[in-house]
Each structure stands twice: as structure tokens, then as C-alpha cells.
Design goal:
single chain, Butyryl-CoA Dehydrogenase, subunit A, domain 3, Butyryl-Coa Dehydrogenase, subunit A, domain 1, 438 residues, 13% strand, Butyryl-CoA Dehydrogenase, subunit A, domain 2, binds flavin-adenine dinucleotide
Amino acid sequence: MPAQKSHANARGGCFIPNWYMNPRPAVLQIESDVQAAQSATRGILAAPTKLRAASAPDLRSRANTVAAIAAAHAAAVDADSRFPHEAIAAARAERLLGVAVPRELGGEGSSIAEVVDLCYALGRACASTAMIFAMHQTKLACLVRHGGAWHQLLLRRLANEQMLLASSTTEGQGGGDLRNSAAPIVRDGSRVALERQATVISYGRDADAVVTTARRSADAASSDQVLAVFLKEDYTLEPLVGWDAFGMRGTCSEGFKLVATGSSEQILPAAYDKIHAHTVMPLAHLFWSAAWAGIAAAAADRARAFVRHAAQRAGGTLPPAAAHLTRAAASLRTLRALIASALQRFEAAASDPAALEAINFQTGMNLLKVNASELAVATVMSAMQTCGLSGYRNDGEFSLGRHLRDILSSPIMISNDRILANVAAASLLAGAPDSLID
Ligand SMILES: Cc1cc2nc3c(=O)[nH]c(=O)nc-3n(C[C@H](O)[C@H](O)[C@H](O)COP(=O)(O)OP(=O)(O)OC[C@H]3O[C@@H](n4cnc5c(N)ncnc54)[C@H](O)[C@@H]3O)c2cc1C
């Protein structure tokens, strides 16, 4: 690979490539990338002929196309608890899976804000599709912001083939404790192996690669973790537990014994604690929150349609339940503002490791997840109260059962209780700000 200038963090050695910070470099270095790709390890092949034109002013209309297909199949995906094949195929066709890959690696260099908006658009259509997209984009951002040469080649391939990345952090009985791993990376020369009880891997069967946490080595502490990427041909998945869940049924979040081998280059060079603080936590919370806001918006839309319908039948008089619609609209408005301000905060800190690691930033991005999930649940509940029995039924145009079941995953997807307990100490440290404009 061509030498990349980077911004290194004197405190933690955080590697943020220049091409992430400035996604419009003057010179594309495709030729040398291709040469590097030809000598690269196992199957990571560059395909410059399929590089997409850089500009993507049509992102919104492409998102709408995918969302329409996702919406058309959302009920069947939920009923059958199946992967949303049609929506993900459409996302591939519209090249949405690789939008955030930097342009010089064949992607479109889409911003975090654009990805957030895509999660929201998909959430309005099909919660499972949106969550799959959100999880994929979180992993992709890890590769962009922290990957080494191998991962840059993978990003090129991902942009070309629109590969889908899955995530494995939950292990054994550890629940949402992302910052500890049990299974270690076992090294044999330049080869690595990993065998882990991956209790939950959403869309594990349909992904093209798994991005997984692991203990650095057999003699490392459980919190001394790395992040590694294994391609589909690198691993086997032995089913441990199925996925017959209350909601988010299309995420197919089954449990597997993951047995993987690969090259040591597949491990990201940065330590996982940095990757987690700089990228995984803030971006997962932003992308998830956007997906949940989409579900909440869809529920509020149904409630609005119900009130219009009821008012029409009553000769223009609003039904008493219209007050619940107002509540749904109000909490949705607060939710959107919360995400927008967190997004601004991330964008301001994105290339500054010290700012990303600041307690205030970490606490704020952690609480984003707690607050966003609570607001999203409140919005869907208010929508349900608006529609009454028409919302409670599974068979009408105002049915909200799926939205409610899907949104109830939000407080448990990394338990809000766990997050609140984790930030308790930080809450003691910082007093209330002196200014409202902070
Ligand atoms: C839709 C969906 C998709 C998912 N996809 C993936 C995936 O692709 N890959 C992956 O690795 N994982 C995935 N997960 C799992 C997720 O990351 C968490 O691991 C999981 O939601 C935590 O589950 P848990 O409630 O069993 O565990 P825990 O976090 O252990 O929580 C169990 C109970 O203990 C309580 N609790 C935990 N800690 C505390 C504390 N400190 N203080 C007070 N109470 C506490 C919680 O409130 C909860 O009631 C997914 C989860 C969902 C819902």
C-alpha cells in the first residue's frame, strides 16, 4: 500500500488516516493499490474497473428505493423471522453498503451524517433492515478509522462487492459487556486462530465477514482486547441457539460457536479499548439511535393517519386520543434533536483522540443510547395509545404491534441499566455546566 500520512495520538497511538479526515484527496493511488492487492493475502482483490463515480447527489433517492422495498417485505420478514433478503439485495444494488468507504478505496466517502440519515430512512421502513445496516456501518467505520493495510484492501473489495459485515462482541454469558473477552487469539507464526462462544451474531449466516472482539492472547487480561476481521471462508459457524424473538426478528441474531483462522494482518493494529472509545461506542449509538428514530417516526405516522381517519369520520372533530399523537410528535421531535446534537458533537471530535476520550464526550455518547431508546419507546407507546384497539390489532392499516415489539429491543441492546451503572462514576465527577450553550 502507498504510505499514508496519519494523525497519531501521542497518548494512545490512535491511527486516523488522512483519507478519513479529508475524504477528497487530490490524487487517487489506485495503480499502486492494485499492485499491492495482487500480492495481498488470501482473496482480498482490488477491482478498479468497478469503482463508482465519486459524487452521489442521488443518495436520498437511492435510500428511498431501498426503503420502499424494505417496507414492502417488512411484515413477512417479521412474521417469518427471516433475513430481509430483498432489502439487503436492494441496498447492494444501490451500493449503499459501501457508501462510507473512502473514495480513493472505491467508495463514496459518505459522511457519518449521511449514514445516520440512511439508518433513519430504513428504520421507517423495516426495523430489522435498518439495524442490520446500522451494525454493518459501525463495523465498516472501525475498518476505515482504525484499519491497517489489509483492511484497506478489504474496504476496496467491500466497496466493489458490497460485502456485508456482521459483529461478534457478545460472548458466553457475558451479555452486553463489550469491554471483556474470554476467548483469546492463538498465534502460530503469522497465522491466528479464534474459537469463541458467540452467543449472538445478527445475520451471521448471511454476512460476508465477521468483525469480532477477542482477548489479545491466552495470557492477556480479559480487558486486553483486539478487533479482528474474518472473511466467510475463514470461519465456520456451529449453531448454539436460534432466534425466535419478540421483535427485530429479521436480524436473525442467532448464537454460534465461531471457529476462525486467518493471518495476523486481519487483526486491527489499534487496541480495542481505543477503537471502542473512538468509534464503536459513539457510532453504534448514533446509528442505532437513528434506526430507532425511524421506527418511532413510522409509528407516529400511523398514529397521525389514524387521527385523520377518525376526524374525517367525525365530521372534522379530532378524537380525544389526538392528545397522544401530540405526545408522540413531541417525543419524536426531542429524539431527533438529541441525535442531531450528538452527531454534531461526534463530528467536532471525530479526528481528535483527546476529545473523543474526554469523559464528558464518552458520557454524552453513552447516554445518547439510553435517552434515545427511552424516547423511541415513549414515541411508539404514545402512537399505540393514539390508535387504541386499531393499533393493538395485528391486522389493520393502523397496526403498531411490530413497531412496538421492534422498539422494545432498544433498551436491552446493551442494557440501559449496564450503561447507567458504567457512567455512574463519571456523573459524580462532572457538575452541571455553567452555561446552557455547552
Ligand atoms: C436485536 C439485537 C441484535 C443484536 N445483535 C448482536 C450482534 O450482532 N452481535 C453481538 O455480539 N451481540 C448482539 N446483540 C446482543 C447485545 O449486544 C447484548 O449483548 C445483549 O443485548 C445483552 O443481553 P442481556 O440482556 O442478556 O445481557 P446483560 O447485559 O448481561 O443484561 C442482563 C440483565 O442484567 C441487567 N444488568 C446488566 N448489567 C447491569 C448493571 N451493571 N447494573 C444493573 N443491571 C445490569 C440488565 O438490565 C439485564 O436486565 C444483539 C441484541 C439485540 C437485542
